[in-house]
Amino acid sequence: MYKSLILAILLLISCFEASCSITTGSRSLLRAVNTNAQDHTNFAIDLNSTSFDAVLKDTPATFAIVEFFAHWCPACRNYKPQYEKVAKLFNGANAVHPGLILMVRVDCAEKINSNLCDKFSVDHYPLLLWGPPSQFVSGSWEPKKENSKIISIDDGRTADRLLKWINKQMGSSYSLDDGKYENEHVLSNLSDPGQIARAVYDIEEATSMAFNLILEHKMIKSKTRASFIEFLQLIVAHHPSRRCRKGSANILVNFDDLCPSDILSGKKQECMTSGPITLSNSHICGSEVPRGYYMFCRGSNNETRGFSCGLWVLLHSLSVRIEDGESQMAFSATCKFIHNFFICEECRQHFYEMCSSVSNPFNSTRDYALWLWTAHNNVNSRLMKEEASQGTGDPKFPKMMWPPKQLCPSCYLQSPQSDAENQIDWDQNEVFKFLASYYGNTLVKLYKDKELLGEAGSDKAVIDDLATSTNALVPLGAALAIALASCAFGALACFWRSKQKNRKQRRSWS
Ligand SMILES: Cc1cc2nc3c(=O)[nH]c(=O)nc-3n(C[C@H](O)[C@H](O)[C@H](O)COP(=O)(O)OP(=O)(O)OC[C@H]3O[C@@H](n4cnc5c(N)ncnc54)[C@H](O)[C@@H]3O)c2cc1C
């Protein structure tokens, strides 16, 4: 009698704990579980029927594992540390192999989750299902259904066996002992054009990080406000991620309230940072970003690549998306943005010099994209020497004249005698074609490629969310949706501009 009373109390407490950790956004979820000191650290994310679709839709991971369990089931409680050992490798900003597999769990003993567990035919605990995250979104599973992209993990009873199953599935050789960056399977992006597909998430990360740094360092001042707005206009229309186009449009439309110019020109020299709606609580790429890690731009140690790589990729992806008539505006907005807001003194200085040396206005996408490519190669050329003499570069990603021949053979008219840029005879038409395809549709489209990401078929949720704007080649339906979205953002931008028309004149880059 006493025993069952104590059991019931314990059950209530554990139910309470479980429900406490369930919130709606995946980032807040990650934080909630990761800071649960009592339970050491939880790496697998607790989801319920309200958060399930949103988190699985949002994740950059290629695969997801969902554990369906019941908190009262002793086998599930015993299994938790095993599942956690594997989740630690893949989940969260400090994961050893981030962004590949999202590991979550759903407590089927919670009433709120009954329908969800029914849809996935949960008939025993724990049940582990594996598949592309998008397949779980509004999805279902039946044990005997043929050709299902979701499969049941039949041998995951211990951490070792679960990881062995994953390795077999992915053709990988991950180990529970892997440390961050050691035994790292960082692939060189030298010759695999498909790698750029993952960079869309890095562009989101870098955009969000740039925005946060600008706010943190109070860089929007009366002198820099206009250039911030110009860059915002550029990304509202042409950012490759819809999430960021939407977030930046929201900020742009409300910018006058969030950062009134009279505040800046008056006594107070920075945008409002307190009050119910502020720039600091606006999310430029949605509340789930930054995630805390890079994928395409991940260095082979903590010190290298990351943000600045993501920023370059953002700039190149914008350069191939603009229309001819926008090329001068894009050039000017980018130059001013880097000059005013890139928190690397040497970088902004060098970039400023390259911007200042341009004498004629740009009038085509091609010219601007090729100028940016050359500017980036100039930086590469300088850093190649610096990094070689100081040993500061990333050993797995040495600087080079880009694109290397393996990536774009037709970009080379003749074989380079050495890596020096002035000895490469570029076919600039081919280089532009390559840039437009690499930073345009390939950046997003290869999510569909089952070979590259190991998925069978397209990842529609990801494609929908990351649909490219303007110049990139996309299917007709997607193009229509993008056009509509772009029109909406354009209308918002026009509305904002009309509010601004009597305000300060835009200064042109000189
Ligand atoms: C605007 C800007 C200016 C910078 N200036 C300096 C500086 O003066 N001094 C300094 O120490 N660091 C500078 N940096 C940082 C530096 O350029 C690198 O970003 C950093 O060293 C990380 O290098 P990475 O190996 O990740 O490749 P990155 O140079 O960051 O390149 C990212 C990716 O872009 C692709 N890429 C490479 N070259 C080109 C190209 N020519 N055209 C198109 N795509 C290309 C490759 O896939 C590469 O992996 C600057 C960064 C930016 C964004």
UniProtKB/TrEMBL annotation:
MF GO annotations: flavin-dependent sulfhydryl oxidase activity; protein disulfide isomerase activity
Keywords, comma-separated and alphabetical: Disulfide bond, FAD, Flavoprotein, Glycoprotein, Membrane, Oxidoreductase, Redox-active center, Secreted, Signal, Transmembrane, Transmembrane helix
InterPro entries: ERV/ALR_sulphydryl_oxid_sf (IPR036774), ERV/ALR_sulphydryl_oxidase (IPR017905), Sulfhydryl_oxidase (IPR039798), Thioredoxin-like_sf (IPR036249), Thioredoxin_CS (IPR017937), Thioredoxin_domain (IPR013766)
Ranges for domain Thioredoxin: 46-142
GO biological processes: protein folding
Transmembrane stretches, start-end: 472-496
Top-level lineage group: Eukaryota
Pfam families the UniProt entry points to: Evr1_Alr, Thioredoxin
Leading EC class: oxidoreductase
Gene Ontology annotations for the cellular component aspect, listed alphabetically: extracellular space; Golgi membrane
Known EC number: 1.8.3.2
Full protein name: thiol oxidase
